[in-house]
Amino acid sequence: MADDVAGEDEGRDELYERLKTFEGLAAVTAGEGKDPVNEPMIRHWCEAMGDTNPAYRGPGAVAPPTMLQAWTMGGLSGHPGRSAAYDALFALLDGAGCTAVVATDCEQEYLCPLRPGDRITFDAVIEAVSRRKTTKLGAGYFVTTRMDVRADGEPAGTHRFRILKYAPAGRPDGVVAGRPAAARGRAEGARPRPVVNRDNAGFWAGVARHRLLVQRCTDCATLRFPWLPGCNRCGGAGWDTVEAAGTGTVFSYVVMHHPPFPAFDPPYAVGLIELTEGVRMVAGVVGVPHGKVRIGMPVRLEFRAVEEDLVLPVFNGGGSRA
Fold it and tell me: Of the segments 182-196, 237-251, 254-268, which one has the largest average pLDDT value?
């Protein structure tokens, strides 16, 4: 997480003093879930997570507790209940050069099980804004919001969500805490950079050498992807790697039309690729028109240098070899 390497900046921070005034103000008032708790969303969630718990299907089913936030999400159109204070807080951060954002952690408390048919309502508050922190990603501020969720009017749970709003290290976009940006970094149309941390650094080092490395637990031999600090099957902390053969099939995919990004030329396909080894990863699907991508389509790994110092794994569905 970004705050694992955060350091608190010393001295007076006039921007922080302004941000602090937003604590305790409403972020969302009288929000309503766009859909009631429902079986199709529960099924999709369980399929994506690989969760086969019988409590989540059939008569008397309940929703997985960790879906608490899912019922409150507004999608691309957002929620009309978002407050002017919330927008003003983020406009202030954007104006100070903290234009990048990364989620760092969340805490959830479950008060009752959610069942199909429950109508979800919620309120959210800006709970805390940190002092200016310097992280490996860049300098910025942690913002914590607390959401109180209700089912048919009764308390159902609490969701705390924390993000870091920051000016990317080495390429600040404006002024942070009254300090002018040294220089603009990469061009506006450059690719977003992958977040490399202590847990996934080995994966990206392998990609740079045109090798797709999958973690393997040294206790139970379970393969896992994405890279994690411990085994999600047996809890073991030891691991080594195996190199993927580079073959697989499209398990699922989306064709991106919106939102537009300067570095990409929509529409384009992004696939959830099931590797021959049995793990799945998200990557671009190339070598075939986006309208021809299909579930079950065979694909083969390629490595593409999208910038001078950035190599990314993609999967070719057009029959070419890596």
Answer: 237-251
Q: What's the order of all strands across the beta sheet hosting 239-243? A: 223-224, 213-217, 239-243
d(CA 103, CA 69): 14
Q: What are phi and psi of 50, to 5 degrees?
A: 70, 30
Name residue 214's beta-bridge partners.
Answer: 242
Please provide the average confidence, as pLDDT, over all residues in the chain: 87
Model pLDDT for residues 281-293, shown as the tens digit of each residue? 999 999 999 999 9
Rounded mean pLDDT, 32-55: 93
**Rounded to whole angstroms, how far apart are CA atoms 155 and 149?**
6
Report which of residues 291 and 74 the model is more confident about: 291
Number of other CB atoms surrounding residue 145 within 10 Å: 19
pLDDT digits (tens, 9 = 90+) for 200-210: 999 999 999 99
Least Cα distance to 149 among 30, 43, 62, 40 occurs for 30
Interstrand relation of 280-286 and 310-316 (parallel, antiparallel or unpaired)? parallel
Query: What are 227's two structure tokens?
Result: 């890279």
Q: Cis ω on the peptide bond leading into residue 298 (within 30° of 0)?
A: no
For residues 290 and 296, what is the distance between their CA atoms, to the nearest angstrom? 15
C-alpha to C-alpha distance for 5 and 140, rounded to whole angstroms: 13
pTM reported for the whole predicted model? 0.55
Tokens of 39: 């079986």
Give the C-alpha separation, 191 to 9, whole Å: 30
Query: For residue 164, what is the enclosing H or E element?
Result: strand 154-168
Of the chain, the percentage scoring pLDDT greater than 90 comes to 67
Buried b (16+ CB within 10 A) or exposed e, 279-294: bbbebbbbebebeebe
How far apart are the C-alpha atoms of 20 and 43, rounded to whole Å? 41
Q: Is residue 25 predicted with pLDDT exceeding 60? A: yes
Q: Which helix (H) or strand (E) holds 303?
A: strand 298-307
Q: For residue 322, give the 3-state DSSP assignment.
A: coil
- CB of 28 closer than 8 Å to CB of 153: no
